[in-house]
Design brief:
The complex is a heterodimer of chains A (561) and B (89).
Chain A: E1 11-14, E2 17-24, H1 41-65, H2 68-81, H3 84-95, H4 100-118, H5 120-140, E3 155-159, H6 164-169, E4 175-180, H7 188-196, E5 200-202, E6 215-219, E7 225-227, H8 231-248, E8 264-269, H9 272-279, E9 285-290, H10 304-315, E10 322-326, H11 354-359, H12 361-377, E11 381-386, H13 392-404, E12 410-414, H14 417-421, H15 423-428, E13 432-435, H16 437-445, H17 463-479, E14 483-485, H18 493-502, E15 506-509, H19 514-523, H20 526-538, H21 542-552, H22 555-558
Parallel strand pairs in A: 2-3, 3-4, 4-5, 8-9, 8-15, 9-10, 10-11, 11-12, 12-13, 13-14, 14-15
Antiparallel strand pairs in A: 1-5, 2-6, 6-7
Helix pairs in contact in A: 1-2, 1-3, 1-5, 2-5, 3-4, 4-5, 9-10, 10-12, 16-17, 18-19, 18-20, 20-21
Chain B: E1 2-7, H1 16-28, E2 32-36, E3 43-44, H2 48-54, E4 61-67, H3 71-82
The chains are: A alpha/beta (561), B alpha+beta (89).
Chain lengths: 561, 89
């Protein structure tokens, strides 16, 4: 079987396995920089209107050939292309001296900003709006429409991100799998691919760089994508899919090692929809509720009432289960219109997370008050933790503010190496810790998370990262506080065993990964997990660490990996 | 100028399919039709983006206005449309 540490991995969002040649979706054409103003704005507007009209006709032609769901999306998108209000706005931009494609982009942006501010359904329509813009801009520049090119053999569709119109018009019998470089668990691509029963992987770094025609094997469960797979691997991946389904069908209930040590299995969520979906699954609660969506894409800070309503909606579906809330994690890379601290040279090392909250305590106070009210209004066991905590003083500052709002349980994310090393002091100030393995790896290995080519350094199996996780767990033990994991590492069935062995008492992950982690825990005793942790810490490289643990794992588990 | 006030019956509010149907119907009248919340600035009822950006929810009141020949009849038909749960159809 191939070695997954050499295999690019994204997030599996639609289960199943498939093999096929790559078809690359054409990306959007950008307006030229410093586009000159047209000599005759009125004549230019006529040309722009013709371009939009031709886009509308293309969309209607595609609608006529599509099924009912796709037809509705495409017809609505055609209406956007013919919109009078949009044309008026473009006319204004032209009159102000903007070049044609710059005017189109600016006019679309004003609507996009309004829709994003409205949130929910409207924010999703921004993708349709931008689809129209991209087609019109391409046509104005004499380029081909961005989108899915014609292809005649069943293929794996690869894109930076797919517009709903593109996903909806794909012919399922011609699409073996979908891979995107961007997107998320709840993106249109994920939802439509699952509906169509097509395996899909999102967030695959470097996906758009794979040459068209390259054979790839896609594992929609694990998120693994193998380039030029051997015939043997192709048989394996299909067989593995069947074995995994059969084995996991019987996995249920709380997380326990074979000898009964509890390891809580929790879900990572990012919004109300995620909450409803995760709560309906066999998880013990939420280990990471990211609250950024409440704040991003807004012109003004959300009010106490707005936040209370959202948090109540997130807590309610979980009944009396645990929900761990992470307070606002924004900064230079995730800027807020109403708390702009200016650009930074090094956003990842700048005024983000709790550091932003320290500069704008008003934002944190309203959030904590809303969380306190929502916690009282529901039965959920609400816990609150801060992102980017580096010192014991920061932890103490945060803990005081949380407790003042009547929230009984306060914690910190352990994602800064300094906090991991000083864990016994940091943890003494709070009730629990949660290791953010993605950022911890980024800061430990000094490798940008957004830089796909550095993914080897970001591997949570790196002995240095595992060592630091071990140090943090030791510190938590000295302070007598529980330590969990809420990064991607928690959803890796093999690594989960190592983490349990290092002393981690809860694992939070994408809900789709819970069943295999539960299955893995149930096959191994805590003593075996300790042995695996020791073996991983003793290994020289990330690959050695994984292989050493693999050698100690139960064969029923390794058969599924 | 003809004016009507109507409550949005559509369970999802005036967006998605109901918004498309309303905009289509408003365009078919061939008149300048506007829609807005009572006492607030109105938007062009034939602009899907304008109507969606209005974000009118289920149970909310909106005011329709139109000018020209047949404005009253046109508004009556649009009021009838908005009084139905378009999403359920």
């Amino acid at each position: 079987m191939s070695n997954p540490t050499e295999t690019p991995r994204g997030i599996g969002v639609s289960p199943g396995a498939a093999v096929g040649p790559v078809v690359q979706v054409r990306g959007p054409v950008r307006p030229p920089d410093n586009e000159p103003a047209p000599a005759d704005p009125a004549a230019e507007h006529v040309r722009i209107k013709e371009a939009f009209e031709s886009v509308a006709r293309t969309l209607e032609e595609r609608a006529a050939l599509a099924d009912e769901t796709a037809q509705q999306i495409l017809t609505a998108t055609a209406l956007i292309a013919r919109d009078k209000g949009l044309q008026k706005a473009i006319g204004k931009e032209l009159a102000a001296g903007k070049g044609p494609t710059t005017a189109v982009t600016a006019a679309v942006q004003t609507y996009a900003a309004q829709f994003e501010a409205l949130g929910g359904y409207f924010a999703e329509r921004v993708t349709d709006l931008k689809d129209v813009r991209n087609r019109a801009v391409a046509r104005l520049l004499g380029k081909e429409d961005p989108g899915v090119p014609e292809f005649d053999v069943p293929s794996v569709i690869v894109a930076h991100d797919l517009a709903p119109a593109e996903t909806a018009t794909l012919n399922p019998s011609m699409v073996r799998a979908i891979i995107t470089e961007a997107g998320g668990r709840t993106s249109h691509t994920a939802i439509l691919a699952a509906q169509m029963g097509i395996p899909a992987v999102v967030q695959l770094a470097g996906a758009t760089a794979i040459a068209a025609g390259t054979m790839v094997a896609v594992d929609g469960d694990s998120g693994e994508v193998t380039i030029d797979p051997s015939a043997e691997y192709q048989r394996d991946i299909i067989g593995k899919r069947e074995r995994r389904r059969a084995a996991l069908a019987g996995s249920a209930g709380p997380g326990r090692t074979k000898d009964g040590y509890p390891v809580m299995l929790l879900a990572n969520i990012g919004g109300v929809e995620d909450a409803v979906s995760a709560a309906s699954q066999d998880v013990e609660g939420v280990g990471l509720f990211r609250t950024e969506f409440v704040f991003l894409s807004r012109d003004t800070a959300p009010t106490l009432a707005e936040q209370t309503e959202i948090y109540t909606k997130v807590f309610e579906p979980f009944g009396s289960r645990r929900v761990v809330v992470r307070t606002l994690d924004a900064g230079a890379d995730k800027p807020l219109a109403f708390a702009d601290l200016g650009p930074e040279e090094n956003p990842a090392l700048g005024k983000r997370g709790l550091r932003l909250s320290a500069l704008r305590p008003d934002l944190l106070d309203v959030q904590l008050e809303a969380l306190g009210v929502a916690a009282k209004a529901t039965a959920a066991e609400v816990k609150v933790m801060a992102p980017m905590v580096a010192t014991a003083e920061e932890a103490a500052w945060f803990a005081r503010r949380v407790r003042e709002n009547g929230l009984p349980s306060v914690g910190v994310m352990i994602e800064v190496p300094g906090a991991a090393i000083a864990a016994r002091h940091v943890m003494a100030e709070v009730d629990f810790g949660s290791l953010g393995t993605n950022d911890l790896a980024q800061y430990t290995m000094a490798a940008d998370r957004m830089e796909g080519t550095l993914s080897d350094l970001l591997d949570p199996w790196q002995p240095a990262v595992l060592g630091l996780i071990g140090t943090a767990c030791e510190g938590a033990k000295v302070a007598g506080k529980p330590m969990g994991v809420c990064g991607e590492a928690g959803g890796d069935a093999l690594l989960a065993l190592v983490l349990a062995g290092l002393g981690v008492s809860s694992l939070s992950m994408a809900p789709s990964k819970v069943s295999i982690v539960r299955y893995a825990l149930g096959l191994h005793t805590m003593a075996t997990c300790h042995g695996m942790a020791t073996a991983a810490l003793d290994a020289r490289t990330a690959t050695d660490a994984r292989n050493a643990v693999l050698a100690l794992a139960h064969e029923d588990l390794t058969a599924l990996l | 100028m003809a004016t009507r006030t109507v409550t949005i019956a559509s369970s999802v509010g005036l967006h998605a399919r109901p918004a498309s149907m309303f905009v289509q119907a408003a365009s078919d009248t061939g008149l300048d039709v506007e829609i807005g919340r009572p006492g607030e600035e109105s938007v062009d009822a034939t602009s899907i983006l304008g109507v969606m950006a209005l974000g009118a929810k289920h149970g909310e009141e909106v005011v329709l206005t139109a000018e020209g020949d047949g404005a009253d009849e046109a508004l009556d038909s649009l009021v009838a449309l908005l009084s139905r749960d378009l999403d359920a159809e």
